[in-house]
Specification:
With 333 residues, this protein is an alpha/beta fold. The protein is built from 13 helices and nine strands. It folds into two domains: 11-90 and 128-254, P-loop containing nucleotide triphosphate hydrolases (Rossmann fold, 3-Layer(aba) Sandwich); 255-333, no CATH class. The chain is 44% helix and 14% strand. The strands form three sheets. Strands 2-5-8-1-9 form a five-stranded parallel beta sheet, covered by helices on one side. InterPro entries: AAA+_ATPase, ATPase_dyneun-rel_AAA, CbbQ/NirQ/NorQ/GpvN, P-loop_NTPase.
Length: 333
Amino acid sequence: MLWASAMLKHATSPIAMFQRRYSTRPLRQVQRALDEQIIGHAAGKEAVLLALIAQEHVYIEGPPGVAKTLLAETAAEAAGLSFFFYQMHRDTKLHELIGDAVILKEPAPEGGELVRSLTRPGGILTAELCVLDDISRAPGEALNILLRLLNERQYNGPSTGSESWQLPLRTAIATSNPSDPGSRYYTEPLDPACLDRFVLQLRSDGAVSAGRWDEAARIIDLFSEGQSSKPHRDHKVLQNGAAELQKATAAHAAVTVPLPVRQLLLKVLQQLVQKHGVNQKNSLLTDRTFLVKALRVMRARAVLEGRQDVSLARRYSREDPTHYCRSYSQGSF
């Protein structure tokens, strides 16, 4: 009886139902759309999938024209998410990110007229996935409020009264041009405190500049016959993508992190600090990212692989746990 009860419990768990419904690949609709429209960029695709499942944010640094924005747009459409894109600039105003400012005039009780400024919700306040292009160019005033919205997913302003508006935002993808010394893009690096809001961070480059000629040939083939870069997807396909994401989210909540994995994560961090000299002066090693958010990403990777718990990467030796850092950064921990 106990065995039968355990089997029934497993059969009705979110992970088991997810595996039965999507027995080949989780989020296969989104993955298929990404592979059809974007050649290469495996790390970027994986980062976006992990972020969607874990409901975290992504930062992608790379030169213009390497499909950073297309990656986000394609994922949003395939997953059936509402989408907001904004190109940051030095004069970005807050209302351009959160919605239009509306002037409301009404009679004052004691005579005269009251003038109030309200916000008509839009932009990041109403989107499920947003792309913040060239985020490092945003002025500090807008950037500070933006990062608070990304972190808290709620908005308190003059228009909300005493209430908080809960944002439907699932994932934000921020992009930036390279900020290396001597870069031709004249881009300032994003402040470390700002970067820490983006759990998944990666660099991207183009097929031509990186000398990936097989990949470049495939891109030429893809666009050689005038195909649209954004093919039409029917309503049923979009519904399937949304259903996949909903089930993946439920599965993510059910994934467990066994004690050996938690112990190994702590050991990795100890090795980085004590053996390799990582500290707050030379690295961004925050409790929020490595003790809280990292676990969400690990669980998202388990969902992508159809597992019920986070398992260790067997190809690395336990004798040197810092080898796991590369595995975690690539989402395979």
